[in-house]
Amino acid sequence: MQNTAESGPDAPIDVTPLLDDPHTAYAALREAGAVHRITGPDGQPAWLVTRYDDVRSALADPRLSLDKRHATQGSYRGFSLPPALEANLLNMDPPDHTRVRRLVARAFTTRRVEALREPIGRTAEELLDAMEARGRADVIAAYAGPLPIVVICDLLGVPEGARRDFRAWTDALISPDPTRPHLMKEAIGAMLAFFTALIATKRAEPGDDLLSELIAVREEAAAEGEGLDQDVSGADRPGDRLTEDELTSLAFLILFAGYENTVHLIGTATLALLDHPAQCDRLRREPGELPSAVDEFMRHESPGPLAIRRFPTEDLTIGGVRIPAGDAVLLSIASANRDPERFPEPGTLDPDRDLSGHLALGHGIHRCLGAALARMETEIALGALISRFPGLRLDVPRADLRHRRTLRARGLISLPVTW
Ligand code: HEM
Fold first, then answer.
1. What is the β-pairing status of strands 329-331 and 45-49?
2. Cα–Cα distance for residue pair 258/252, rounded to 1 Å
3. Ligand 1 binding pocket mutation candidate from 369, 375, 410 (most atoms within 8 A of CB)
4. What average pLDDT score do residues 201-205 get?
5. Average pLDDT for residues 127-156, to the nearest whole number?
6. Is residue 42 classed exposed, middle or buried when 0-12, 13-18 and 19+ CB atoms within 10 A define those classes?
7. Is 156 exposed, middle or buried (0-12, 13-18, 19+ CB in 10 A)?
8. In 243-341, which ranges are E strands?
């Protein structure tokens, strides 16, 4: 994994081992150096940061911007969304990020998350009923995949009739078919049209859902003096409101951020339980232990192995390596969460360890906004699954299981089980 003398310190490392066996490969990289040159998922060169302390402080470093405008020409050629979807929190720095996040936090309250507890439990039981009737199932296709999409549809207030299309578009975005790139573009176009229409409907007829509340936050603020406030210098600045694009891209981000990671976490956590029957029995007996177990599952197999790419606004040093302004920087959450300097015996699944400060849900101002929902959903999903099927076991040899082969996500392609 190390750069060779011939290739020089700036030559990108070969990412194949990171795709084939990420934990072993990250362990080797952490040993070899704090920061490595890599070809990122967008095919462009980037710096990969591997050690816990560096990743944690970089996640909260205001000199690392999420705004692509800080990328030097050529350092970012990743996928771009239509402008109406680009105005999202994960492309923003303060002060825009502060304003939008504060408005969303006002609508995405603990009460709203708690209100989803009962519907999540009901949906989980319905999916398990359908699985039980068949006698065997793929946990990903039958359970981990459908559950989060229903939860997000409930959260945003997507009507029943539109949910089938919604799922098809989402799948086209998350598992793009490389032989048919137009499908992804079409799915994005369809989704943008869908959200635009949904927002218009909710504006006319608000419901008890997050989207209606986000619209209300906007309309309320707009009604209070066109949303323009004066700052201390007396200059006009955008006030407390969401623009139409921010509203649309928020809905899109919540779907995107909330769906894929949760599917992967429920899948890999189920596999961890099958691999550790004693821990599974303990959770069945003591469901009160589920919350810490869920945090250990996400430390052990972080569903989002890389944070969103960041761009230094000035030259800076990470782990002793000088990184020029504008270069793409990838922070490895997966590697940080298995750094033995912070988590001793990091490959061992141990819900009793000190889990404070794990980075699976990020850190700093962009810390996961849906953290409470993600935890609650995974706890309910795992609790319901293991109590329904005490004899749950793999339906294929362990060695046949495959993870998605990407740097961006850590999740199983399928998880066939029987009971
Ligand atoms: C297991 C599930 C989840 C994981 C592992 C996860 C992980 C993360 C991480 C690591 C970040 C920070 C990214 C960065 O700084 O580069 C993040 C941000 C975010 N997440 Fe999650 N997430 C999960 C579920 C959810 C859910 C269910 C929602 C909403 C329904 C959600 C909404 C968001 C949003 C809106 C942001 C952006 C926050 C900001 O920029 O201020 N996530 N998530």
1. parallel
2. 10
3. 369
4. 94
5. 95
6. middle
7. buried
8. 311-312, 316-318, 321-323, 329-331
CB atoms closer than 10 angstroms to residue 115: 14
Distance 225 CA to ligand 1 centre (A): 32
Mean pLDDT of the chain: 90
DSSP annotation string for 321-368: EEE-TT--EEEBHHHHTT-TTTSSSTTS--TTS--TT--TT--GGG--
Which domains, ranges and CATH numbers included, belong to the chain?
Answer: 16-222+236-418 (1.10.630.10)
Digit-coded pLDDT (tens) for 334-383: 999 999 999 999 999 999 999 999 999 999 999 999 999 999 999 999 99
310 contacts 46 by C-beta, under 8 angstroms = no
Alpha carbon nearest to ligand 1 atom 22, residue = 368
3-class SS letters over 222-240: HHCCCCEEECCCCCEEECC
User: Measured between alpha carbons, how far is 18 from 25 in angstroms, rounded to an integer?
Assistant: 5
Among candidates 93, 365, 87, 104, which has minimal Cα distance to 221? 104
Pocket of ligand 1 (CB under 6 A): 59, 89-90, 101, 253-254, 257-258, 261-262, 265, 298, 303-304, 307-308, 333, 360-362, 366, 368-370, 373-374
